[in-house]
Amino acid sequence: MGVEKMEMEDTDSTLMEKGKKPPVSRPPNKYETLFQPCLAEIVGTMFFVFIGCVSVIENVPAAGRVQPALVHGLAVAVMVAVMDNISGSHFNPPFTIAIYLCGGMELMMVGPYLVSQLIGGVLGAGMSKLMTPAQRYHNATGAAFDILKSESQLSGAIFGEVAMTCMVTMVVLLVAVNKKTKTPMAPFLVGCTVIICILAGGDVSGTCLNPARAFGPAVMANYWTYHWVYWAGPIGGGLVAAALLRLILGDNKLRVVMNS
Prior knowledge:
Residues 1-27 are annotated as: Disordered. It comes from Seriola dumerili. The protein has 10 helices and no strands. The protein is mainly alpha-helical. The chain has a single domain (34-248), classed as Glycerol uptake facilitator protein. Helix 2 (30-57) packs antiparallel against helix 3 (66-87) and helix 3 runs antiparallel to helix 8 (186-201). The radius of gyration is 24 Å and the shape is globular.
């Protein structure tokens, strides 16, 4: 009798489990899908530009390009690592444009991301102005890019900005968007690429590679000499990188040619 009772209880339990309704999936949280990524882009870009500006303003002559290179690269690596699961850690308009062109984000988020990055750039540059002595800030032109002094430098500077932004954007796409080459080492690799580019091209163009990094200090210091170079070059480099992934380097899903 006891055995029969236990069997009936087991049967009832099984029937109850079968009759359970599957858990209702929660609708996407609008804050986490729209507002939080944009806020993360503001905060991430803000701290990146803040640290980058201070590294230039407070740079000692003996350090040369090493100090800004290490600071920018390490700041990128840290911010990418901690913000990746919130916004994807773009912090750079060419990255956002290239990631969209490679299918890594929706069109509706492109505009908000670009605006957020520019806001973050201005806030970060403002923080550096509050932190550093006025004389040093003035001598460094607020860490706006003042390498270019004449039109004879423009061709080399534009080419450098295009080529080096292409390189770092290509690395971002390969480690974060292209499924065949995705890796958890993305923050380290992107940070190292930034360090390499600044060490190589710092004296040619300042190695901006990021319109938000150029825009914030330009606003704070009101320094606009050849500022357009730091928009045209990086955006051009980002477009070239996206084309390389779409035509040559991407996996079957990403590549638009020879993918059968």
